[in-house]
Amino acid sequence: MRVITQPGPIAPERQEILPVEGQAIKVTLRPDIPLEDAVAEALATAGCDGAWLEFSDAPVAALDYVIPALSPDDEHVAWYSAIHTFGGPGRIERLGMMVGREGTVSFLHGHGLWIPEGGEIAMGHILAPRTMLSEPTVAHGTGITGSHFARQADPETNFTLFRPAGAAKEGQDSRHALVRLAPNQDFTHALEQVCTRLGWDGARVHGLGSLIGAWFDDSTILDSIATEFLILDAEVRTEGSAGKGPEIAIVGIDGSDIRSGRLCRDQNPVLITAELILERC
What we know:
Structural class: mainly beta
Distance between the termini: 29 Å
Oligomer: single chain
Number of helices: 2
CATH class of the largest domain: Alpha Beta
CATH superfamily of the largest domain: Hypothetical protein, similar to alpha- acetolactate decarboxylase, domain 2
Low-confidence stretches: none
Shape: globular
Strand content: over 45%
Largest sheet: 16 strands, antiparallel
Mean pLDDT: 95
Number of domains: 2
Number of strands: 22
Radius of gyration: 18 Å
């Protein structure tokens, strides 16, 4: 399994786990305002401190995004591309958003797939303050109360990242957990370790992050050091169960090379982070 040396000291905790109070939610996002504002407004109305939200097949009036890029310096192992702009209307095919806080202000981190009118499908990291829906859009997911992901400095990667914050429930009694995975651990194996640490038999997994390339169970490979991924479908069991790997969509430095499929085991290390909500099953 490949390993990328990060610029800072290795953090002792590789799996940050916070059992939390969560529930299934469905909210309607208002059009014609920045997507970040529409999400913050909807979650405030729902009484949630944070959330994982997804929606699909939604028309947009404008959408900006970035894709992974190599770092221009030694301060990070990867960076972001120049901003890509639709330049007109289009559709979001699928978008997943981890919604947390930066200080006291709502902040979201979203990865997805979209297509401009008359163009080709693309994938990346959405710039929510520069994106607007053109119709009311229903999003569904998991709402969190009493806890959230908070943007905090991460000395190991030298990025400001989402990390679990707030009140914890007892792991054996909880139905949901916020999880952040640090670099250079196999994604599938780390999820199984999290289930074991929580004392759960298994969990549905929702979230996004970055991997050092991607090795799929059909033997295809995305050869890109820097990537961004979105979980499409994932259910994990406890450590040693040898279940199926998560199904993801992923894009690398070559933005035209978008892959999807199930990850193979022990070949897919986290690059910078994975931000996840686990739902006990």
